[in-house]
Amino acid sequence: MNLVFFATSPQGTEPLLAKELKTLGAARIRPAQGGVSFEGSLTLACLVCLWSRIASRLLLPLERFVIETPEDLYAGATAIPWEDHLRLSDTFAVDFFGTGQGIRHTNFGGLRVKDAIADRFRNQTGSRPSVRLQRPEVRVHCRLRDKKVMIALDLSGESLHRRGYRLQSGEAPLKENLAAAILMLAGWPEMATDGKSFLDPMCGTGALAIEAALMAADGAPGLGRDYYGFTGWVPMSDPSLWNRCRQEAKERFQAGLKHLPQMVGLDADPKAVNAAKINAAQAGFHDRIRFDCQPLEHLGKESGQARPGLLVTNPPYGIRLGLADAATILHQRLGDLVRRHFFDWYCAIFSGLESPDQALGWVAQHKDELKNGSLSCHLLHYPPEKPNLAHATPEKDEGKPVEIEGFVNRLLKNKKRLDGWCRQSGISCYRLYDADLPEFAMAIDCYAASIHVQEYLPPKTIDPQKAGERLRRAVEVIPKILNVSPESVFLKTRMRGQGGARYGVFQRKDEFLEVREGDLRFLVNLEDRLDTGLFLDYRQVRALVKKHAYGRRFLNLFGYTGTATVYAAAGEAAATLTMDMSNLYLDWAKKNMRLNGFTGQNHQYLREDCVQWLENGGDRFDLILLDPPSFSNSKGIAKPLNLQSDHVDLIQHVARRLTSDGILLFSTNFQRFKLDESALQPTWNIQDLSRQTLPLDFARNPKIHRCWMLTLKQKNRV
Q1: DSSP character for 296?
Q2: From CA 56, how far away is CA 418, in angstroms rounded?
Q3: Which of 266, 251, 43 minimizes the C-alpha distance to 155?
Q4: Can you tell me whether residue 468 is helix, strand or coil?
């Protein structure tokens, strides 16, 4: 007798699943949104769970009915002969999806169905089966939509995308059944039969490569799983059928391994490559897929394929920081390299960008739209022929070499000028380039062997596409010119949005890099936020703090990551207090101090609204650094701060915290700031140190910061 099943699958893959089910022997196949309905035997159910590369779950619908109240759900579930499906000694679990008709959350719906099953058994036997959420003998699947309820057995037990080989996972991994769908749409099964090669240049933890190997070796994707939902189901109590299916699959896999074509996965992240090797070995492909650590820039130089075949990849939707603009640059780089070196391969690129073909600079022959979770993505197809460049124009092609050559020459010139000064000063972090050429509007800072690139927003008169292309070209040559790995270049780009220019939201990785400034050490973070934790243009201001710190009590207002406090401690300050509203920055400041050996009760940290704290009066200090933000309305402060309009009151309040012979160092990066000296002169002696505190590497921009030294006039000393 044929049973009616429903196999679910990722959105957009239903036609592939229908085709796959037909090859497995299914009848009366009817694709629907989110899956495929079909008919077949118990043997077919085993084969689908074992061999389907596309399905997510295999469901056996037991009953469909309409409800008006939660009591109707309970009654409908109670009427199902559950004793035909599970034993009293078995465990079960209920998954419920949907709300409505008095069922406000899925937990409540699942509870009503669970009670119905338990009560039916209790009424018949006086006992009930136990619930076990993880790997029960029988898993029940319930769905409520528009008053209609469907109750089914989940014969897969857990999602079929879990093949059992993924022991190591990376960031945003591609689900295995979606990877298989991408390979099928790209025509890999036919290519593999012809012995063609496989390459994924950004393989991550290896999902595409391993799924491709399973297809090429005739490997059943479910052979490595140790749990299915049907193995405890009463009609499947005899394991002989399942054992025969598995044994046949093992024999086919061993035979298929002998014909595996050349397969390569590459990635710039050594951790991802190591994870891919572990996963591949678990899938039965130990040393049969070559996984190498290789940056994208080397693609084509060391790919090593004997025969053209399929190049398929799922590039990250952002480089390190997850920024849309950075992802576009990555796609542009990938498009350039693939067009240059793999024009005779079939190339398929799966991307979550809004316009991936525009980013790749390459018109796809056709696209498939798929869902990666909730994200709409495209699979772009490029058959093996000379591609049509989407944006190549004579003006751009001729202009690039001239522009980039000027940029390269300027980098080399600046590096030569600064190298000697850095060595003599013991400086490992400095600004190499600051929009020296208007065409390349960015700041480039060196942090030891790492490079921090910050894009400036181009004027509206500049074509955004052209600006993006220049940025991409610059990022491409920076590692070569500065002799660093591409992974050591950290890019931060601006986007236009409501409210004007803004930087994107960065991923939080909390990865710190230790750098040196003279004899002192600091932790910087080049990934998580726009600021790195060490303002390079304040190097001379910090030196002033050290110069005047000996024997003094030092107060670092708006203390940030405490770099000035480290200098004060190095200058043998008697005591230090670092104040900021951010716990994150205060913790960072403590780490910087500990890194340099400055600990103990003499060094204090206070989370406080600096403005309100100054207004309250209290302890006095001999040396104060005041470096406030230009504007702040942060949560937790008593009132917003506007530096230009509030600086006189702010500085006057500092007088209440300064000893009579104390020193105030006041600084700001607000380039339009004007110090109201006339309002301050009755109280303060003022010395402008802006030029004196301008480092050589910032000489091109004398407005980068302003700095003044203020001391109280005799009549105002207390």
Answers
A1: G
A2: 59
A3: 43
A4: helix
Strand, coil or helix: 58 = strand
How crowded is residue 2: how many other Cβ atoms within 10 Å of its Cβ?
A: 13
Q: Which two tokens stand for residue 122?
A: 């209790």
Instruction: State which amino acid sits at residue 125.
Output: T
**Which residues touch 18 (CB under 8 Å, ≥6 apart)?**
29, 31, 36
Asked if residue 350 lies in contact with residue 314, where contact means CB atoms within 8 angstroms, the answer is yes
Alpha-helical regions (H) of 494-618: 539-548, 563-570, 583-595, 610-616
* Burial (CB count <10 Å: 0-12, 13-18, 19+), residue 188: buried
What are the tens digits of pLDDT across the range 98-113? Answer: 999 999 999 999 999 9
Element (H, E) at 397: helix 394-425
The full set of domain ranges for the chain reads: 3-154, 176-222+256-382, 394-503, 535-716
Distance CA(307)–CA(100), nearest Å, equals 57
Give the model's confidence band at 374: pLDDT under 50 very low, under 70 low, under 90 confident, else very high.
Answer: confident
CATH architecture of 176-222+256-382: 3-Layer(aba) Sandwich (3.40)
Distance, in Å, from the CA atom of 652 to the CA atom of 617, rounded to the nearest integer, reads 11
Task: Please tell me the distance from the alpha carbon of residue 161 to that of residue 58, in angstroms, as a whole number.
Answer: 12
Read out DSSP for 617-648? ----EEEEEE---SEE--TT-SS-EEHHHHHH
Domain 535-716 class, CATH top level: alpha beta
Model confidence pLDDT, tens digit, residues 291-333? 999 888 788 755 545 578 999 999 986 543 344 566 777 888 8
Same topology, domains 176-222+256-382 and 535-716? Answer is yes
Specify whether the CB–CB gap between 550 and 573 falls below 8 A. Answer: yes
Q: What does the buried/exposed string (b/e) look like for 334-356 if buried means 16 or more CB atoms within 10 Å of the residue's CB? A: bbbbbbeebeebbbbbbbbbeeb
Q: What are the backbone angles phi and psi of residue 298, rounded to the nearest 5°?
A: -90, 5
What sign does the dihedral 180-182-187-188 (CA atoms) show?
negative
Angle between helices 270-282 and 207-216 (to 10 degrees): 30
Indicate the pairing of strand 346-351 with strand 575-580: unpaired
Residue 159: exposure state from Cβ atoms within 10 A (0-12, 13-18, ≥19): middle
Domain 3-154 listed as CATH 3.10.450.50: no
**Phi-psi bin for 355: left (phi > 0), alpha (psi -120 to 50), beta?**
beta
Taking the CB of residue 68, how many other CB atoms lie within 10 A of it?
10
Could you tell me the pTM of the whole model? 0.63
Q: Which residues pair with 198 in a beta bridge?
A: 263, 310
Q: Which CATH number fits domain 394-503: 2.40.110.20, 1.10.274.10, 3.40.605.10, 3.30.750.80?
A: 3.30.750.80
Residue the block writes with tokens 């603009």: 325
Evaluate if residue 589 carries a pLDDT over 70: yes
- 678-695 pLDDT, tens digit each: 999 999 999 999 999 999
